[in-house]
Design goal:
By secondary structure, the protein is mostly helical. The chain folds into 2 domains: about 55 residues, no CATH class; about 90 residues, no CATH class. The protein contains 4 helices and 2 strands. It is rod-shaped. The two termini are about 65 Å apart. About 15% of the residues are buried.
Length: about 170
C-alpha cells in the first residue's frame, strides 16, 4: 500500500489505495471522526475512504456519551411575586434583582441601578431640604416637596412592576 506525503506543513501522510468512487460514510472506520459525504480521505487520520466499502463501517453503537455529572436542570426557579413586591416597596430595585437572579442579567443591572439612583435621589432631596429650607413667603408646594412626593410614590410603582414581572415569569 503506497503512502505519499501531502505537503511539508506537518499534515499526516495520506494513504492512497488507487481510484475508486467515494462512499458516503458518516464516520471514518479507522479513527471514528465524522466525515462529510463525498470526502475521499479522512481529514483526521488520512484514511482513504474510497476503498472502505470492502470493510464494514464502524457501528454508531460504539459511540456512547458519558452521563453528565450535573443533575438535570429544570430551568430557573419560579419567583414569588409577593417577595418581589415587598422588596421593591421597601428597598426599591431589589425586587428586580430578585426577579433577575439566575434568569435575566438585564433585570439584575436594572435593579441595581434603580436601587442606587433611588437612594441617591433621596439623599439629594434630604440634603436640599436641609440646605434650602422653605421660606414663609413661599406659597404652594416647592419643587423640593415635589421631589419628596415622587420619592414616596416611586416605590409603589416599582412594587407593582416587580409583582407583575414575577407573575409573568412564573
Amino acid at each position: 500500500m503506497p503512502c505519499r506525503a501531502r505537503g511539508s506543513w506537518g499534515r499526516k501522510p495520506i494513504i492512497d489505495d488507487g481510484p475508486v468512487a467515494p462512499l458516503d460514510l458518516p464516520f471514518c472506520p479507522d479513527c471514528g471522526k465524522e466525515v462529510l459525504p463525498g470526502d475521499r480521505f479522512c481529514l483526521n487520520c488520512g484514511r482513504n475512504l474510497e476503498r472502505v466499502g470492502l470493510q464494514p463501517a464502524m457501528p454508531q453503537a460504539t459511540y456512547q456519551t458519558q452521563p453528565s455529572a450535573l443533575p438535570p436542570s429544570s430551568g430557573p426557579r419560579k419567583k414569588n411575586p409577593i417577595i418581589a413586591l415587598l422588596l421593591n416597596l421597601f428597598l426599591p430595585g431589589l425586587g428586580y434583582v430578585y426577579n433577575g437572579a439566575g434568569r435575566d442579567g438585564g433585570q439584575l443591572v436594572f435593579g441595581v441601578l434603580v436601587f442606587v439612583f433611588y437612594f441617591i435621589g433621596l439623599g439629594v432631596s434630604f440634603a436640599a431640604s436641609l440646605l434650602f429650607p422653605p421660606t414663609v413667603e413661599a406659597s404652594g408646594i416647592s419643587p423640593l416637596e415635589y421631589l419628596d412626593i415622587l420619592g414616596l410614590m416611586l416605590p409603589i410603582a416599582f412594587a407593582y412592576d416587580g409583582y407583575h414581572r414575577a407573575s409573568l415569569a412564573s
